[in-house]
Known about the structure:
355 residues; three-stranded antiparallel sheet; single chain; globular; Aspartate Aminotransferase, domain 2
Amino acid sequence: MKKYNFNAGPSMLPREVIENTAKQILDFNGSGLSLMEISHRAPDFKPVVDEAVSLIKELLDIPEGYSVIFLGGGASLQFMQIPANFLLKKAGYVNSGTWAKKAMKEAKHFGEVVEVASSADDNYTHLPEIKDIPSDLDYLHICTNNTIFGTELRKDLDAPVPLIADMSSDIMSRPVDVSKYTAIYAGAQKNMAMAGVTVIIVKDDMLGKAPRELPTMIDYRTHVEKGSMFNTPPVVPIYSLLETMRWCKAQGGVKEMDRRAHERARILYDEIDRNKLFRGTVEESSRSLMNICFVMNDEYKDLEKPFLEFATSRGMVGVKGHRSVGGFRASCYNAQTIEGVNALVQAMKDFEKEH
Ligand code: PMP
């Protein structure tokens, strides 16, 4: 049976990315060796990193003066690496969900942390209103897409202080004005690659100001200077990232990704709003185009498990909501197809007819 993958991450990748990566795993560039067996310093691998970096720069229209680096450790490592490099005295954090909160917790190891805005009291069902940003912050940290709660800030904030964003779950899904940011980071396992690599876009002239001795691996300058080759990088994930960036460009780039994201989300939210069984969990103006969260209406609560079983029987995977929210979550990253979204909508309609 055909599967429709709505996993929140690691998540669906374009078929050709998987096939092309698989080919290189069997035989890297006709070398007779697997991509899994080569040295990251093999002459054929540097062009992989170089092309991946240059495609990211091209697709996001990254201005001069920024570096793109690939690290391990996930976005979770960035929760501490960002403050280690940029927190001098005091940083501001927008508490928009679980991941933002985790980032804030790690920053407290390095200095004073101010919660500039929060929607915790409303169980993160909307984006916090960001106003009155103190002007003495070393930076303001935001999470542009809240993967668990399904809220998204789909525009670039004007901040009076350096802006740093966790874009793990919506990077490459829209054009971004990178010049507004000091750093952008993303665990790549949603819109960019298989799991195992983290992408960091960093403004070069903001580095080297931290008033602390940084361990070599934690200092971004190490990785900028060595072109992400200070230590052994995650070779296969980086290759899959290159293939995904080639795919993204061939499809029309981030503008086209943005158009598709709007189209998919409109189809799904329209059905959630129409169908008597379901309701969205997020205020309309904060709704994410990437992670579409919904629950059973109260009078149909008992149908939650049966609907999941019904959807599973139709080939849907990963539609169960995060354990901290319950209900359902359909993740619609770049590789998600209209066909997949229509299949889910049809399942919702057919299930409604039965009840
Ligand atoms: N930030 C966001 C917005 C995420 O969605 C996730 C993971 N789903 C993380 C951070 C943590 O990423 P990682 O698992 O790569 O550490």
